[in-house]
Amino acid sequence: MRAHVIAVLALSFVCVGAFADTKVTLSDVHICCKSCVDAIVAAGKPSGATVTADKETKKVEIVAKDVATAQAAVDALSAAGFLGKSDNKDVVMKPMDVGSGKATSLDLTTHNCCAKCTKTIDAAAKSAAGVKEVAATPKDPKISVKGEFETKDAGKALNDAGFQVKK
């Protein structure tokens, strides 16, 4: 009898674990305003995960039924121009490759909903050695970086500021 009780308890723990939610926290995401928060929540919604964003902590919380759903939410946020560091080893968010080598001009797209986003994009890109000019307009995802710089350095500077950039 005791062996049956132990077996039932062990099986119940396995079953509960099999249905546990997958949780992911993305840190260092660019979130400067309510429009950023709304864009993050909207991007994650079709995945089926619950996605929340906190402007103060620059964190995004994802709760999903499984790893695949959590990864779909992260991929959707990436496609929307957001980038962060995942605390879940099974759910990854990687910067997109913007190439390497010297450049005098680089055209990219990213999230850019307001003047605060644009100011952050400008400052981040100009922090890369050799970047002299950044053309970015609020509510326009297209940005242009000019100067004499390494493309990977400009991309990394924008990534470090919480923006996913793509060519």
Give an account of the 3D structure.
With 167 residues, the protein is an alpha+beta fold. It has 2 domains: 20-86, Alpha-Beta Plaits; 102-160, Alpha-Beta Plaits, CATH 3.30.70. The protein has helices at 2-18, 34-44, 67-79, 115-126, 151-160, and strands at residues 22-27, 50-54, 59-64, 85-86, 102-109, 131-136, 142-150. The strands form 2 sheets. It has a 4-stranded antiparallel sheet with strand order 2-3-1-4. α4 packs across α5. The chain is elongated. The termini are far apart. The model is unreliable at 3-17 (pLDDT under 50).
- H-E order: HEHEEHEEHEEH
End-to-end separation: 65 Å
| Strand line-up in the sheet with most strands | 2-3-1-4
| DSSP strand tally | 7
CATH first level of the largest domain: which class?
Alpha Beta
SS strand fraction: 25-35%
Percent of residues in helical segments? 25-40%
Structural domains: how many: 2
Largest sheet: 4 strands, antiparallel
Q: Helical segment tally?
A: 5
Which structural class is indicated by helix and strand composition? Answer: alpha+beta
Uncertain runs with pLDDT below 50, 5 residues or more?
A: 3-17
Q: What is the typical, i.e. mean, pLDDT?
A: 91
Per CATH, what is the topology of the largest domain?
A: Alpha-Beta Plaits
As a whole number of angstroms, the C-alpha radius of gyration is 20 Å
CATH architecture of the largest domain: 2-Layer Sandwich
Shape: elongated
Task: Provide a short characterization of the protein structure.
By secondary structure, the protein is an alpha+beta fold.
